[in-house]
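Ticket 4471: requesting a sanity check on a complex prediction with zinc ion. Repro inputs:
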Amino acid sequence: MAVIEINFKCKVQKEKIVCNFVVMDFSSKLLENAVHEMSLLPGIGKRTALRLVLHLLKQPSGQTARLSSALEDLRNSVKFCAQCHNISDVELCEICTNPKRDESLVCVVEDIRDVMAIENTGQFNGLYHVLGGKISPMEGVGPQELTISSLVNKAKEGKIKELIFALSSTMEGDTTNFYIFKQLEGLDIKTSTIARGIAIGDELEYADEVTLGRSILNRIPFENSLKAN
Ligand SMILES: [Zn+2]
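Returned structure tokens:
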């Protein structure tokens, strides 16, 4: 029996409601299942899921087997570094065990993508602490769901001299920074946040007021801007 799925995507355009209907009439339950599972991934709608599944179907079966076994291996064997909580194949990640890194300087980030982004700059030689998210009451994420207590315990050991907060500049990011900052009260640790302001190459007139305002509040001595170039 054919299964018909209808997805509604509606948006208001000049007071008119425009609706796009995605009707999928699957001739195969196997195809339907594969498309459904694929479409559960973030940013993948039904149409894209169908395109990807059909693409895989055209490839040699070995490719699909390698993809599914890579995902299964990742899911079953992945570890999180015992010290920084970054994804790792071993108990302590390569960054934490690198003797050339400065262990007194710790950058607090949300997830592994931030670690990769900062590593790509080649400008940071300290260690990381991966929180696993941000405090977000709306999404039911409290401090206990994150690795904050592990960070505070590390801070109490006395090796950390400076913590750099590198979370996104959203209300959740600011709340998380403030929560950690309060937890560190009484400890001799310098805290800083990454600079927020006008991006390189941006025209001032196109910057929003909050960004421009922060850029003025967080201004730096001109000599420092010369060093950064
Ligand atoms: Zn680590």
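Notes from triage: Residues 1-8 have pLDDT under 50 and may be disordered. Leaving this open until the requester confirms.
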